[in-house]
């Protein structure tokens, strides 16, 4: 079997890493992979051992010509199935290209933001099947009118190995200029509005007064960086909140945090939460999208209503005040990741969908 994968993301964030896991797993099973991705994208290097990489211009939803470029690639590569892994025009124009070329098409849906029913009814006709990375996203699509037999949930996965290595706490404090006795809340997310950084900044002042050793380290980059930096300075928090940027070596550091906060308004599943659990870090996150699937309430972390700053502060306070609870949730979270979020299961789930859609199409 040959599969043409289309990933429009330029950076090696959570979604692109999942694509790399899938490519590696499919390659190990004898699947011939071709990857179309933007010129200069980070995934090209990671995918090279497991796929024929075809860089091309990808200009987003307005790039109508992308349909033609992908159709030409389909005609040349002759895949058995096209798998669209992202938005930014890859979903729409990739679906059009596959339909024009007469090749079965699968879409991965990684976000839980709703779409108008009329758009779902039109756009999703392009796809033979849709794979969601959480049951929460599947529920959104079903509520918008997509037929249940056309949507399968195959959860995102994690290679837990690098996250199991113990973190040198003293080195962690030195790396992020923290006191040796610091009590640390981390966030690991793109600096974009829906991730909820503003809620954490709102919740921090009373916690800082109650826990003098408390600091926050925010991992990630994005368009809100300048705004967040200015907000941190305006609130007088510059000595207590660090913007640590995007770190390729995050497995070396994330386990040094005492708590991971992820008060997102919406989220497909939340790879950073799986990573934190594998690292043994307890989590406070929102009861939104697929987040309750990534974090079991009272088992690996605490769930709060989306956008509820008071509830966020109360949950963080509960964990900050109880080291034994933090250890229990962290240990349980690691065990849950190892048991329920394997890469093999994700790869087999995707492969089963490929077999289904190719079997359902006439030769």
Automatic annotation (TrEMBL):
Residues 14-159 form the Glycosyltransferase subfamily 4-like N-terminal domain. It holds the Pfam family Glycos_transf_1. Keywords: Glycosyltransferase, Transferase. The keyword Transferase applies. Residues 176-335 form the Glycosyl transferase family domain. Belongs to the glycosyltransferase group 1 family. Glycosyltransferase 4 subfamily. PANTHER family: COLANIC ACID BIOSYNTHESIS GLYCOSYLTRANSFERASE WCAL-RELATED, GLYCOSYLTRANSFERASE. This is Glycosyltransferase. It comes from Aromatoleum toluvorans.
